[in-house]
Fold each of these.
Amino acid sequence: MTTDNWKTLEFPDKDELIKARHQFHQAIQNVGCVGRSFLPASSGDVNANLDWDAKLQRLASRWITGELVFRSSFSLSEFSVYLVDELFHTISHFPLQGKKQIDVMIWLEEQIDMLGLDSSQLSLKLPYEIPEYPTAKREAFQVDSEVAGKEFEALFHNTNLVLQKVVDGIEGASEIKCWPHHFDIASLITLADTGDPETSKSINLGMSPGDSSYDEPYFYISPWPYPVEELPDISATGGFWHEHNWVGAVLRVSDIRDKQSAGEQHDAVLNFFQQGLKALMSIIKV
């Protein structure tokens, strides 16, 4: 299989990844809040979700119109927040290392004013809860591992790349988005839309950089509603079933540590998504 532009994963120390993830999860709230503050309110906090911008290699908000059209974005490898225009030119950027969250918001307010919008509308109030990281209590941002930032950048880039292949042409597949709430990147395949999320049927495919379920990045395929029948054998995917609090197929990044080349890593993750999706589709009745 072609690996396209897969970025080879280096598998840095797990503790380094955890520390960086906490910093990044807090930081992207500043990026998502721009869309949430200046775009029309939407159900599910859609106005605050982020794209993976393959050109800039950043997580980027939706486009906003002021005196010019712009979007906020976040570089994981540089640990910086950017504002860019429609031509992808940098309007301004703010390195986060050693800065506090209030410093980021002051900078954003200054930039928003210069772009012709009312900065008093900018709010970091979240419609959900995230872990209470030290950076939310006025501690400065600090990422000690440059390698961790590059690894997360590769993970978001690679997941976006593979998911585009997997969901291409599938009816009901959503755009691939990163959600600031859980910091995951995913596509939702709606199989049956009843108008009620509780009774609709869907499959969510994505990557989490780590959370309360697993303290490392992992790929997942999760159906809704959760199956009540016996789950199919997915050993051929390289993954396993997660059944505590939620149900889904999981492939941890550490599970592909033996895959050292870009081609091996690409094929392992693509196989997980393709075969896992096929297995779930076999038991979901629409």
Amino acid sequence: MTDFWTGKRVIVTGGAGFAGSYVVDELKAKGVTDICVPRKKDYDLREVSDIQRLLKEFNPNLIIHMAATVGGIGANRLHPGEYFYDNMVMGVHLLHESHKAGIEKVVVIGTVCAYPKFTPVPFNEDSIWDGYPEETNAPYGVAKKALLVQSQAYRDEYGFNSIFLLPTNLYGPRDNFDLESSHVIPALIRKFNTAKETNAPEVVLWGDGTPTREFLYAGDAAEGIVLASEKYNESLPVNLGSSFEVQIKDLATMIGNLIGYEGKIVWDTSKPNGQPRRKLDVRRAEEKFGFRSRTTFEEGLRKTIDWWKANSAGK
């Protein structure tokens, strides 16, 4: 354990979720033993009184705020109000109450969805205010982006130490494979696996397959988040990514091949594509706190597919 983590008491909101669980694992690997993962049934982070009680009871040195109401394109279209309110209110209250309580540092996990729809590729952090986010996930993206403004404003006025990270799309074992709310990689894995098991002649996918995405293995993301928690103390936003861009058509073919599905892929062009391209400029993370992703995309996909096969019985 480095000196920074010695004796640290850390709250990881959302630490029981997919990405948060990897951050908890990474903290434990650093030797941190005092980790609090608040459960929604005990602490509703939309309620100021619950946040105040959490901070008083645990008295943390550092908070990593990963709790979020999230989902894929379909879920975002169905719940724009819920996604805006939950993410805005949780973050604003948590930052404000942490400042009032004298917490040493808060790490806010933002989202690549905060970027404008037509951001030049690769997305540089300085472009984040150059337009409106892609419509299907704009309420979620804007709510998260508002926390960047709060982080910077509180540092300027109060000297409060908070940082803002922008991870790209994450994937890996333990992801959400519920087709109603999952993101693209787990959704594709589940669809192709089911199609193979049932000998379905085709798999129908949303959009036309032309958009591109960048994906970051969740274990790598956790390493970046913990590194930034330790070493980064500025309010400039920082991307966390792999800098590997793949077209959705190619992603679908890759996953189908890894699973061994031999049927036809059909694209339902009546469904939305989402943002046209996503690829991050990841230089700032390496310059500021030495982060670079290590897991190759194929290696990460294989681990994710193997986990799903081992854990999908009866689903």
Amino acid sequence: MDYIKRFITKNILIFLRIFPPEASSKISLISLKILIKFNFKFLAKKSISPKESKINLCGITFENYLGLSAGIDKEGKYFGSLGELGFSFVEVGTFTPSPQKGNEYPRIKRLLKEESLINRLGFNNPGILKGIQNIKKNKKTFRGVLGISIGKNKDTSLDDAYKDYIFCLDHCFNYADYVAVNISSPNTSNLRMLSSMSYIDDLTREINLRTKYLEKKYIKKVPLFLKLSPDESKEDIERIISTSLSNDFSGFIISNTMSGKYRGINGGISGELLKNKSLDMLTKVHDMVGEKIPLIASGGISNKFDVQERLDNGAKLIQIYTSFVYRGPYVINDLLN
């Protein structure tokens, strides 16, 4: 029976590749939500029995180590359904203060042979206010840990970028189990400059000050995770980490997509082509921070060996994205069991 289900799922995924990547993703998410709503058990969470015990990090209990990266649910509409597949945590967004359409088309290309993607989406999202409305409607159906990823609008200057992050933080704080601060997407012009000496200290300090205020306001703690670029030099990584930890960031997500050009498109490369670079960065960061600082590994994770390799190199949690796009829900079962 499991073989038949996998066969059907594989062929559905092949059929969906007829459509452009963004349309295919939207069709998949809407279909999943309908199936879950009508209690369809074909992909039910109950069928997955992870051997790993629960993981406690930053005061949060995760049912298992596996989560879904930001970028799949950009609107905050589908995380409840995605959680039913077996993910212990789902990260939504990235949200910006104002809605954004993102960059011009074409902006995603499937690299089928390499099981990778290249995108230049540019933080397309409905804006944090609409995003939180969606989250409030759907959180009651979600049984996992919710991460909310925040960023800056394309037209906001780097000098004013901290205001965008604070605006988003104000609106998402009370609904997030953790907040991912995204300064590392290669698809928003100059965004990665925020990790430079000119901006990183002021940015992380302002975010920390606002977090302390919100902790008192809502009488709750929400960990902050900084999402790092795999293209940083070792010296820059050391400076970014030192500055972030001094401003009370809880941990790091390693890593975002790597910047590159492939088959005529400039953008962020994810999947198998990112695997070695993200692993190398994880190893470097773990050597710097040791076991006490939580690290979430992301980038090119597609099999159980990849998972174990990341755990052995300091990761406490694992996020996937591209392997889920290519292989569908059964990759979750494969990575957990």
